[in-house]
Amino acid sequence: MMQHIQNLETPAILVRQDILTQNMQKYQSECDKYGKKLWPMVKTHKASAFCKMQQEIGADGFLCGTLDECEALCEKGFQNIMYAYPAAGTISCSRIAKLASKCNFYVRLDSIESAGMLDEAAARFNANTAAADGTGSPDVSAPVTISYTLIIDCGLHRFGIAPENAAVFADQLKQFEHLRFAGISTHSGHVYGEADPDKIAIYAQDEQNALHTAAAVLEKAGYEIQLVTTGATPTFRYAVADPCINIYHPGNYVFHDAIQIGNRTATEEECALSVYATVIAHPAGDLFICDAGAKCLGLDQGAHGNASVKGYGYVIGHPELTVCGLSEEVGKLHVDGITDLKIGDRIRIIPNHACSSANLTDYYIMVNEQDQVTEWIPVDIRGNKTRKI
């Protein structure tokens, strides 16, 4: 017999199986409709089981936020893998060279320095491989070449080059014989700072304009563009039909969260992940304490700040409650008006940022529509797993 969530210890991270599946299918269907590929961002859930679900539904590849994620997917047989950020340093670049030898791997670049380090890592990998097999020269049929996309800045101003400078920068990278130009990528992450849902389309337009400009100057300079990639869950619906873009990288779409509710990307009913907690104290008339704190909900109120977010999570079924403060292990619930809440009650909180809550747990407790536990899914590619070299 299935266990009901009322019998679970709290706090617990719950994921509604049906909502998760519906979210995955919805975004995949949109990509299929317009002939696009979906390479979801893995850092949202950090679970290889969810990657398998996404692949079975139609995902063609994956975008990863850490090299740990890249390596884990490669080891499990996934082939199309992109690392979302530039790399620097001998250790990281060596890991990338090894990944490039095992799967269809892409890294992103926005500096000559990073490119040079990756080129050296690939050359070193080829030399070491040749020495190991005793030939003294690399296998000319399959030397490691690291494929890359240029990071185009569409307004986030975190990574990237100006769109109009794409060809100039690509020309500079021609000096590196172990690198291969594959295309362009961007990320409109600054959309998460927008509190007005009616303005989301503006960020999507900036995203598209940046890629169109970069693609145009590169094509004029004679470059063949294989990949034009972008992705943020809020802008997805506005950008998915763009004829220039062929790969999308939404991540949060699998869970959604209070920020996505605030910017009207999702409804409460489309939020798959919640934090299950018990009310453990009632120190004042307008204040309760629950046993879920910052180590479950995170202290995130939007990576770029967002005025549409109130408190540290949305308490399902209790509009009178605000998660007004968090300690490491407990949360404060402020009452505005009348409530029937009492000590011992169980509540479900949709976190502001589901990615943070996902990174703070070792497993997801999958539940069905009747709140029965159906499965326990490990968050198996979370944390720092740096190998000793």
How would you describe this structure in keywords?
single chain, alpha/beta, Lyase, Ornithine Decarboxylase, Chain A, domain 1, nine-stranded mixed β-sheet, eight-stranded parallel β-sheet, 11 helices, globular
Structure description:
Helices cover 31% and strands 22% of the residues. By secondary structure, the protein is of the alpha/beta class. The protein folds into two domains: 238 residues, Alanine racemase (TIM Barrel); 111 residues, D-serine dehydratase-like domain (Lyase, Ornithine Decarboxylase, Chain A, domain 1, Beta Barrel), CATH 2.40.37.20. Strands 1, 10, 11, 12, 13, 14, 15, 16 and 17 form a nine-stranded mixed sheet that branches. It has an eight-stranded parallel sheet with strand order 2-9-8-7-6-5-4-3. Helix 4 links the parallel strand 4 and strand 5. Helix 3 runs parallel beside helix 4, helix 4 packs across helix 5 and helix 7 packs across helix 8. The longest helix is centred in the N-terminal third of the chain and has 21 residues. The chain starts with 11 loop residues before the first strand and ends in an 11-residue tail after the last strand.
